[in-house]
Amino acid sequence: MVDRDPLPSWGRGRVTLLGDGAHLMYPIGANGASQAILDAAVLAAELAAPGDTPAALRRYEAARRPATTAIVHANRDMDDAERAIAVGRDENKAGAIAGITRNYRAVVEQRHGIN
Ligand SMILES: Cc1cc2nc3c(=O)[nH]c(=O)nc-3n(C[C@H](O)[C@H](O)[C@H](O)COP(=O)(O)OP(=O)(O)OC[C@H]3O[C@@H](n4cnc5c(N)ncnc54)[C@H](O)[C@@H]3O)c2cc1C
């Protein structure tokens, strides 16, 4: 249960990061491992493409860093919102939680082009 601010970059030259090393996030969205797998898929595709390794790593980072940054923030927002409901007097807690989950899914699915 460790959360860190998104990094401004993941590496330079022939060095990069992947998974929790790149984008540690609260597991509240159940997304850390799945994002690490998506990192690996994009990284493999970019390394297999023609061109040099540093350029492939920069394309990988350009594809994955904005997406995972948005999910780190969405996890925090969901955590904050669920805690507020837990201590509040909201009569419709189930409805409020469903709304929070809907908003979270919208962020994740938008980042991955899922409709
Ligand atoms: C309580 C909890 C629940 C979670 N639930 C979910 C979930 O439902 N869905 C989901 O998608 N994600 C979930 N996650 C997040 C998920 O576990 C992580 O995002 C994921 O494991 C990250 O994978 P990784 O390969 O980047 O890092 P890790 O899985 O941490 O792998 C890193 C590996 O490197 C090894 N290592 C470290 N230092 C060295 C060294 N010097 N030399 C050699 N090896 C080293 C470690 O032993 C480890 O095996 C959860 C996390 C927690 C804590």
TrEMBL record:
<keyword id="KW-0503">Monooxygenase</keyword>
<feature type="domain" description="FAD-binding">
    <location>
        <begin position="9"/>
        <end position="73"/>
    </location>
</feature>
<dbReference type="InterPro" id="IPR050493">
    <property type="entry name" value="FAD-dep_Monooxygenase_BioMet"/>
</dbReference>
<dbReference type="GO" id="GO:0004497">
    <property type="term" value="F:monooxygenase activity"/>
</dbReference>
<dbReference type="Pfam" id="PF01494">
    <property type="entry name" value="FAD_binding_3"/>
</dbReference>
<protein>
    <submittedName>
        <fullName>2-polyprenyl-6-methoxyphenol hydroxylase-like FAD-dependent oxidoreductase</fullName>
    </submittedName>
</protein>
<keyword id="KW-0560">Oxidoreductase</keyword>
<dbReference type="GO" id="GO:0071949">
    <property type="term" value="F:FAD binding"/>
</dbReference>
<dbReference type="InterPro" id="IPR002938">
    <property type="entry name" value="FAD-bd"/>
</dbReference>
<dbReference type="InterPro" id="IPR036188">
    <property type="entry name" value="FAD/NAD-bd_sf"/>
</dbReference>
